[in-house]
Write a structure and sequence with these properties.
The structure is a homotetramer. The first copy, chain A, folds into two domains: about 60 residues, Alpha-Beta Plaits; about 280 residues, TIM Barrel (Alpha-Beta Barrel), CATH 3.20.20.70. Chain A is built from ten helices and 14 strands. In chain A, helix 2 links the parallel strand 7 and strand 8. In chain A, helix 2 runs parallel beside helix 10. Chain A is elongated, with a radius of gyration of 24 Å. The C terminus of chain A is likely disordered. Chains C and D meet through helix 5 and helix 6 of C and helix 5 and helix 6 of D.
Chain lengths: ~350, ~350, ~350, ~350
């Protein structure tokens, strides 16, 4: 922590500043410049977080030197974290192979879910997404099938072999969602829902943490720190577009957050091109850009028939488009030094056999 | 709903568009222009919200005509809503008298709380704020005294006569907070925590709903609609600064949101100058600006000794500053055609007598 | 300047950093903390502005301590600057009396200009605005009458006695605009048109400098510094709304910029509520808020018949509305400790007599 | 143009609205819905741009249907524009081959310029950048060598064969810059300097138009339209990062602007990863992302010794880094279906021979 004082700070003011810092267990170090006197604080500056240094007379500004997060930082863990989702071998996020999560915005019914699962699996996706509880701006919009959807997700996993990711929005639902899903998603609007972060921190299941619409990179890392601080280090970060003045796209994909995050943290970083762009025709170019910038994976909305989707119709891609995207993606993944999963043998995902899965 | 088609839309495309709209129960109305054909949709356009119109071939853009909220709209209720907080006469928000909520960021102990209550009451505040559960960006920061703070708030209310406002962050806490507080605050980070909005919508207690850091006015109104849609129409909206590119202040007070909201909704609108500016010296000018712009009230952080505050030290004002602010505020309130409460007789708020309150 | 080094900085790296700083004429001062070593730089840190300190091995970040502007700073001049516009007594901006500049967005013809001048003068405005050269987003929009408008402005000044303010957009026009106008406006889009700033810096006429749509407070002050650095200290700053994610208003009035600027600089600060809100019904509440926050004045678009305005129709107020606004404004000005000019005797501003004025 | 009326619009109000529209030469078309009446306007809606429709009684909102730009639109020209820079064969921007413009932020002297030119040419760049007139936030910063730099650029072009790009900031400099440079750059701060846009529109030289920090895609296209409207269609657009709330990078690269622009306009689109990220270590990942998203080229700051650069030191890459970047870039260009220029034979660019070039 560095304390910059006002131009004509007095000695008693300086003494009072030093006293507050030293009472918190740090040492001080004065540096009298031509225009300003600087008080350097040596020791664990987190002890000063709760002290109102900037309100003391004579203080002009207080500049933190250390980053406010610990366990998510690269310095805390030398090797990149690889998060394994699902049982058995599962699907990895954070390793050399690019992870592709795909599936419908919401689970609208059994047939569409099985159809979506089959097509994304055939195109090479390694995890399935599908919303059971949907956060919607309007109370009059479709908010998901809830527990019925959770049951369907568990069923389709059994048949398709794809681990499933679904969003949890309420601390009271954490338990039941964790029973059905392989990975719990914290949505952008809940990135700073601290009780929810703590609740998934108490689980031992992977968490997909999406960046809030106006969250800084530091706030995203601190939100992840909430989860790690409770003992759950299976966290994947997701850039999904931020809110800016720009209206040509739904949000603004902050592609530079990918290299910034990769430099700061050992956690895997994926990108959601569907929400970032908000238009189906933007999904492919934004996916390619994300992978080129170093993303560990993608999460893409795929709907068997986008024009009939009950949410996010405009940004969902059809199975055919998704297949094309995946084909073109291979060259970009290769350029980025990454592999992609082999296309699986075309074993059909048959909704009929689901019940017995 | 107006559907603008692409330049060379074909007749079969137009037929398909019309079919989708008419299937949803609306009528269509074609208007062939020189450059574009427009399909007007007549009827309840909310029926089209779930239909992926913009994904249909030939569609260039879809423009909603109706506002997506109903019960919060001025058209829904002719008279402004006046929210009465507390038992007996209580304190009103939304009437001609300016409402001033004041008190510490967090309840840090009995003595400071009683001291704060006494000083804000003496200065003319009519409600007391104080955090029990604090949302903090870092898991390592002070997060409030929790239930102990709730008990202290109930105690100080009994002694001071000031109704109390406190934040609720978790659906699991709604019940206990409602038992102790007169008004429940939904913080900026939870403005789109939809399960929480629904939970306070089921109460019959006033709710203070703060605007999210990057929420549009429409999203704020839709969040309030979640609460009204569950039967609780005792909602007060609060502008507290938005996140912009600007770094000279903690957030950017969006003072124009006040007249915009007052025009759109019958709900009361107050302003939080403490979080908006983030500096104690900005609290007074931003309070005056808010009232001049038409705000129904203010919520201000006051701490008996700001430099010792365990959170928001930099933006808390001391009792003396608050008293000055309230004195100067009277002239602005008068210019805005509002009254302020009379200063109460100086009956002390004695912490000693609290236990028996 | 403070240089924060990386965790495991080496001694040779530290030596190289110190050498660069000392070569620029400053002294260094090492402070070895638990986690980081800090290099304090003592002396004129502006000497380091051109040195790529942050690119040196071992450097994590470089933190400036001094503000980058000099002559505009409060520390540079103890008393507030009062800018006097026009000949003779002229009209003051920055003193105790609130300055109100009003008039049409663009000068569309003689009759409308004289009519506007007469009505704003009758309502108590002390300066007249009117655009001759209009910056327009589209090349197909009306771009002002140019030199013809300059002549009309000079004419109406002679008759009305109101000093005139008009925008200059091109270095090649500075001379002719300065011949006709009493105050030159640099528009928001040109706030960082540095050759233009230098050109008006060479004049000895007052300049109205509008904040850019995405300019920080510091950048606005540095833009003013360009003008002062050339010897022209007659500069008035104008907050006119910034660009944010919000779409309910044309721009977002950054009302907190007013107290922030007043604290940082001795220059007068006024507000443009017309461009900030973009709607005529927002002009009054935003004017009141600006004055309550401490603004030295306002600049307001008034058009004799807004629905016929060739630019900014939506945000222009009619003379009647402007009169009402000015009447209500007196109470807010009073609350802010300011006076307003007396309403002048109703000497008509007669277009007929203009030619001989 | 679609006019949405207020809920209880009266017939006389509707008549007045229709009259205004029809007077402007368009036809109207009424569509009475359950909640709103819509007035469709058929004809050239640009005729309505100057009419204050939204100020008419009974009007709730006015929704344009047509885009405000013409000549830059894809509809205006079927084939993509390929801009050829320099004499003879020159260097193309907009064709299948990826264009790479590289060089120092500013021309600081002959030696560094020749060295930079030699190294970027050796790595495969096809155009040379170098600033002669530098826009700087502070009047006390280095502002370029001016005409001396122009002469050096002409010289190094003669020797290296690389066409040169340099910024022009002032209408008075357009002529002299055009005499020396092959392509004129309009910087981000001047994107809406309309006299300057018109001035370069009168030339018959290619223009590199950078997006303003807070410019929408539409505003960028309208700025280009200013140039095309004067007869110069050799315009290249450049995305260089926008200003958002985020501080982890200098600006926020809006990578989705690339596919959005490519869809809207026939003009080439390049990306400036140096200004977008503001850090040398971000230049490579952002370059790869830009090309993956479909950019036609890149403009990159390369300095022989970044730590000694007099401007933009932090974001300049050294020749070695640039070489590595170019090598890695080939795979991404290939994945995007683009070629890159062959590396030239290593003919040295010798400063000594420059004078005779």
């Amino acid at each position: 922590m560095i304390i910059v004082t006002r131009p004509h700070v007095t000695d008693p003011e300086l003494d009072a500043i030093r006293e507050v810092v030293e009472r918190a267990g740090l040492q001080t170090h004065l540096s009298r410049g031509e225009h300003r006197t600087i008080v350097g604080c040596i020791g664990d500056e987190r002890m000063l977080a709760e002290v109102g240094l900037s309100t003391l007379p004579g203080v002009e500004s207080v500049i933190p030197v250390l980053k406010p997060y610990r366990q998510v930082a690269r310095e805390f863990r030398a090797d990149p974290t690889v998060v394994v989702v699902g049982e058995g071998e599962g699907a990895s996020i954070g390793g050399n192979q690019l992870a592709v999560i795909a599936g419908p915005c919401s689970v609208e019914g059994r047939e569409m879910l099985f159809s979506a699962a089959a097509s994304v699996r055939a195109a090479g996706a390694t995890l399935l997404r599908g919303g059971a509880f949907k956060p919607r701006s309007s109370p009059y919009a479709f908010r998901g099938l809830g527990e019925e959807a959770l049951a369907l997700l568990a069923e389709v996993r059994a048949v398709s072999g794809l681990p499933v990711v679904t969003e949890v929005m309420d601390t009271r639902q954490v338990e039941i969602v964790a029973e059905h899903a392989d990975m719990l998603q914290i949505g952008a609007r809940n990135m700073q829902n601290f009780p929810l972060l703590s609740a998934v921190g108490d689980l031992r299941r992977p968490v997909l943490l999406k960046r809030g619409l106006s969250a800084t990179v530091e706030e995203l890392l601190l939100a992840a720190e909430y989860i790690l601080a409770r003992g759950n280090d299976q966290v994947v970060l997701c850039e999904r577009g931020i809110r800016t003045f720009k209206t040509a796209t739904r949000n603004t994909l902050d592609v530079s957050a990918v290299p910034v995050l990769k430099r700061e943290t050992h956690l895997p970083v994926i990108v959601d091109p569907s929400h970032a762009g908000g238009k189906s025709w933007l999904v492919a170019p934004l996916s390619f850009a994300a992978v080129a910038a170093g993303a560990d994976g993608l999460i893409i909305e795929v709907h068997p028939k986008p024009s009939e989707a009950r949410s996010d119709a405009e940004q969902s891609v059809a199975p055919g488009e998704f297949g094309d995207l995946m084909s073109r993606l291979r060259a970009f993944a290769g350029a980025a030094g990454r592999t992609m999963s082999a296309i699986p043998d075309n074993v059909p995902v048959d909704p009929g056999s689901g019940a017995g899965g």
